[in-house]
Design a protein that fits this description.
35% of the residues lie in helices and 18% in strands.
């Protein structure tokens, strides 16, 4: 529904309903006699005659109980192509008797479901409403049967029953009340809606077949029309005229083998046993249930509880809850007002659609309504193509006090939905569509979002101008985490819209999620409480327990989310819990980043560690991560060209039998950096042997896994001395591949020597500066500042690039237990 139409866009439908939507064009006929030449009355309910045997179960028929199996599963593996084709080929005048006709249609099938399909399609496709049949036709011949149908003296249900029984398929006619399109939800006068349909036993159970509704519809029949009881009124005459409109030829598959559990929402048999439903319905109960159309069941929707079709508001508010069967889908709604039944007109300027919104609740959707005026309303729920699904009649005896319209009405509703998932935006904190807020108090909402998606948050209010709420929303993106902070300037309802688009896309922003921020109990008139209820107490206790335990970030985050959703007063618990969550996630990132040698993860962890207390467990991880970040940055800068080389180019290098000296020296320098012994690199044949290795020992893999921290200054100077006798042009001239390795090896060696020149190697406590590492994220050369002051000789030892101590630190930090979490927590809580 996405808009808020004004009063001028309302249209008055028959029955006195005001609606902003164009009604459906077709509907079901009320009885079997719709549009035929003569009125063939249904068999009297209390009169026995020859036809009555078709309304009874024959001896030996299975008991009329609910079917035990899932029909959609059966239909999905059943091919109706052949019976459909046979039904089109066989004509009535080609057979002299009904027995011959049925044999022609069904004789080639062994399965009853295929026999029934052939009969169903043949009966439904007969043009008896437009074709003339000879008057002298044998009444018991196929042509005679069709002539009686054309004269209105035989129904679809009767000929279908006769043909199924000739095919030896159990079938019975059912008399009862059918809620056709002339029915309005809540109408107690249903006796005039008499009709007849079939139950047939196939695939191990009784199913419903309603040929009239499957093959005939009334053109121009609008939905939501109230059947009127006064035959002298003009509305009644207009309605009768509509019911005599042209009959359309169509096939509605829903009415072929319908589940009795679904069919009971539309049709009530006179005999209770023929309901074939687990729940038994009386006429009074049948009248009160919601009016559900076929599309409702085709979408696998369900009533979340057992609501009635006629609802009465409580203090001017009302909710309808539906459950998705096969995952969330887009649903829209229309709220209608009946001026005639309400006995008063809707005041000018009222935007009625803005008094109803949909709230996404996971596998359910809630339609919440508030009513500014007493009267009679109708809620119609539709799919995204505006096809009618179900209706509820709502009687509002007392309007809601101080009733304001909702700030926004969107077809995606409030709360995370399918559009949110499609945009790859994930709600980490607020997963429900309604968020309780306190006037002028900030709330924080957390989301995950890919780096290639741009998000824009916009706040709106139905009662405040845009400039009055300007600046109420701030947002910050860090890596793939989005934080939105909102401060509502006053009491009332607000809509927080989240819009996304690709960063490199030229298309416009698209709304993918809405949140309803409200300072009141949503859709309630309860007085503000000064105490915490059981749920709120439990949320506070849960947060405190998770904070004390302090070792599970997911459990802590869930406790924080629940605390925020209930909008409980915060005495500092939330800040402590958030810090602890960040600490635990940062520790995990350190260990994962070191294990995977991932530069983005380590940079994120180092950045987050700047805002955290440094525990004994975190300090060695910071030192080791800082070194690895430096290493990975150097590799990223120098290794791009090498890693881009094809295997063919590398292979060509070791195929040279007598390479020029520059090529030999470049590859010797390269393998010296990679850790090969100098003696093993004296002869070109030895270098060729090493270059031929594959897998983890291949040249490209060794470059990718190269650890610059393991190269000492002496080795770097030796490599640079080998390469300084050549320039770039000479190296590239010898071989493009060799030139690439020249740039890599010389660049690595120069970085090591340059770094060492800035390192203090005497026994003074002056800190060692590590290039490219933020000063707050690490301490010099793998030691914290205290150790540096106490053991100055170790600084000189490390400056010689012996990494034995750092390797031990790495192994210890990776395998360390998380015992220091409580230490961190004690620091947080101080």
């Amino acid at each position: 529904m996405g808009g808020s139409p004004s009063k001028s866009t309302y249209k008055t439908q028959p029955g006195g309903w005001l609606s902003t939507r164009t009604p459906d064009n077709t509907g079901e006929p009320t009885t079997e006699t719709q549009g035929t030449k003569e009125t063939a009355a249904l068999p009297p309910r209390n009169v026995k005659n020859k036809k009555r045997s078709l309304y009874s179960l024959e001896p030996g028929y299975p008991s009329p109980v609910p079917p035990p199996n899932n029909l959609p599963g059966i239909l999905s593996v059943t091919d109706f192509t052949v019976p459909n084709a046979i039904a089109k080929e066989v004509t009535a005048d080609s057979c002299s008797t009904m027995e011959e006709l049925v044999e022609e249609l069904t004789g080639s099938f062994n399965m009853d479901i295929l026999k029934v399909r052939a009969i169903f399609m043949w009966v439904g496709s007969q043009p008896f409403t437009v074709q003339q049949y000879p008057e002298d036709a044998d009444p018991e011949s196929p042509t005679g049967y069709l002539r009686r149908m054309a004269l209105g003296k035989m129904s679809y249900a009767e000929i279908f029953t006769a043909m199924c029984r000739l095919a030896k398929v159990p079938c019975v006619m059912i008399l009862g009340v059918a809620k056709s399109s002339a029915y309005e939800v809540g109408d107690a006068n249903v006796d005039k809606l008499r009709n007849v349909w079939n139950a047939v036993y196939v695939a191990g159970g009784w199913r419903i077949v309603f040929l009239l509704w499957a093959f005939r519809s009334i053109a121009g029949k609008s939905t939501g029309v109230a059947p009127l009881s006064d035959p002298t009124s003009e509305d009644y005459k207009n309605q009768e005229k509509m019911l005599k409109e042209k009959i359309l030829s169509t096939v509605k598959e829903y009415y072929f083998l319908t589940s009795p559990e679904e069919f009971i929402y539309r049709c009530l048999p006179d005999e209770e046993k023929l309901q074939m439903s687990y729940k038994k319905y009386t006429k009074a109960k049948f009248i009160k249930i919601p009016y559900c159309r076929p599309r409702f069941f085709e979408l696998s929707l369900q009533m979340s509880s057992s609501p009635e079709g006629v609802l009465t508001t409580d203090n001017g508010v009302c909710d309808v809850l539906l459950r998705y069967g096969d995952g969330p889908i887009t649903l829209v709604h229309d709220l209608l007002y009946n001026e005639r039944q309400s006995k008063q007109k809707l005041p000018p300027g009222v935007q009625l659609p803005r008094y109803c919104v949909s709230i996404n609740e996971g596998d359910k959707v809630r339609f919440s309504m508030r009513f500014p005026f007493k009267g009679v309303y109708q809620l119609q729920i539709l799919d995204e193509k505006y096809e009618w699904l179900c209706s509820f009649k709502i009687i509002c005896k007392t309007a809601k006090q101080l009733c304001e319209p909702f700030p926004e009405v969107s077809y995606i509703g409030f709360g995370p939905c399918r559009a949110t998932l499609d945009a790859k935006l994930t709600a980490e904190s607020h997963k429900e569509g309604v968020v309780k807020v306190i006037e002028k108090k900030e709330i924080e909402m957390l989301f995950s979002v890919p780096q290639n998606v741009t998000v824009k948050a916009v706040l709106s209010s139905a009662m405040s101008p845009e400039k009055a709420i300007k600046g109420a929303v701030t947002q910050r993106v860090q890596f793939e985490s989005l934080t939105i902070k909102v401060t509502t300037p006053h009491r009332g309802d607000f809509c927080l819209k989240l819009l996304t688009k690709g960063k490199n896309a030229s298309n416009r922003y698209k709304v993918v999620c809405n949140y309803l921020l409200t300072s009141d109990e949503f859709n309630s008139k309860k007085k503000p409480r000064t105490y915490e209820n059981a749920e709120e107490k439990n949320a506070r206790t849960r947060l405190f327990a998770a904070l004390i335990k302090g070792d599970n970030p997911d459990e802590l985050q869930e406790a924080i989310d629940k605390f925020n959703v209930l909008n409980l007063p915060d005495d500092g618990e939330i800040a402590k819990a958030k810090t602890q969550v960040l600490y635990l996630k940062t520790m995990k990132d350190f260990k994962e980043g070191l294990s995977r040698r991932s530069l983005p993860i380590l940079e994120k962890a180092l950045n987050n560690s700047n805002n955290l207390p440094k525990s004994d467990e975190m300090k060695p991880l910071i030192r080791q991560s800082s070194k690895m970040v430096k290493n990975l940055r150097a590799l990223k800068k120098h290794s791009h060209g090498v890693l881009a080389l094809s295997s063919r180019t590398i292979s060509e290098l070791h195929r040279y039998k007598d390479p020029v000296p520059v090529m030999v020296d470049i590859m010797r320098a390269t393998y010296l950096l990679l850790g090969e012994e100098e003696a093993a690199l004296e002869e070109w044949e030895h270098i060729q042997t090493i270059m031929r290795k594959t897998g983890r020992d291949s040249l490209s893999v060794r470059v990718r896994m190269f650890d610059v921290t393991k190269v000492n200054i002496t080795l770097a100077k030796k490599v640079l001395k080998i390469l300084q006798q050549y320039d770039k042009d000479t190296a590239v001239g010898a071989s493009a591949g060799a030139g690439t390795f020249y740039l890599w090896a010389s660049g690595i060696a120069r970085d090591i020597i340059s770094e060492e020149s800035t390192t203090v190697t005497d026994n003074s406590p002056t800190p060692v500066i590590i290039p490219n590492i933020p000063p707050n994220s690490t301490t010099p050369r793998g030691m914290d500042s205290d150790r540096q002051r106490d053991t100055p000789r170790e600084i000189s030892h490390v400056s010689s690039r012996d990494t034995t101590h750092d390797q031990n630190v790495m192994e210890t930090s990776i395998t360390a237990r998380t015992d220091s979490v409580s230490t961190c927590l004690s620091v947080i809580c101080v």
